[in-house]
Amino acid sequence: MNQPPPIIHPRDPLHGITLETIITELVEKYGWAEMGKRVPIRCFLHDPSVKSSLTFLRKTPWARERVEGWYIAYKDM
Question: What is the CATH number for 61?
Answer without folding.
Answer: 1.10.720.30
